[in-house]
UniProtKB/TrEMBL annotation:
Domain of life, source organism: Bacteria
Source species taxonomy: Bacteria, Bacillati, Cyanobacteriota, Cyanophyceae, Nostocales
Statement: the UniProt record of this protein carries the keyword Membrane: yes
Name of this protein: Type IV pilus assembly protein PilO
Transmembrane portions of the chain: 34-52
Keywords: Membrane, Transmembrane, Transmembrane helix
Amino acid sequence: MTLSQDINFVEDGESLEAASAYPVVFGISFTPKVIGILVGVLGFAGALYMLFNLVMPAWETFGQNQAKQSELQGQVDQKKATIKQIDKVKQELADAKQQQTQVLGLFANEKTLDTLLLDLNRLVESNNATVAINATRAELRKFVPVSDKAEPINDGSLGKQVDGKLKRRSVNVEIIGTYEQTQSILRNIERLQPLLIVKDYQSTLAPQPASEPGKRLLRIGPAPISTSFQLQALMPLTPEDIAALQAAPKK
């Protein structure tokens, strides 16, 4: 009986020592399992804390920077497109100026009108280079300006679109020559640099020159014809012309 009690006492003591091996707080024994659960909970709580206090603000900042970057890239692309558009407009402007220069080059000006008489006389004489002595020779008989200066076009004779934009200077011309010579002269007039219009074209058989008494005039080739027409040189109105036209009282 005494031996069994000692054995039970020893077993109870050992169990108490085993039970007291883990710390107890508020009646909870912190066994390895309990400690593992607590560490997991604390780790999860720490992860949540880092998520809401570190990761989420950083993610929001990243999103804001991404949006700002997209906005700035859009502005850069827009500026690039604007630069390309400006270059395109500049090129179109240069092309328009070049076309305007080419178009203006087709019209007459005061300088070309000053040499028009010489140009016509040269065109007429060029047909006499290979003409025989007794053949008909082309000749410029008349070159009479209708007015001393160019007059603005406002009569609709060239169309309403031209009124108030162009002016013209007219010259009455008469030439003598064969039909072939006359056609050649008119074609060469079309090739002159200034824009010229031929109006009131008339051709008649030219009178034969009187021969000297006792002599017979022998003419070789076709008979000459007399051709008269009005040559109109067109010129664009200058800014001074436009201002004077606008200031003039309307009729």
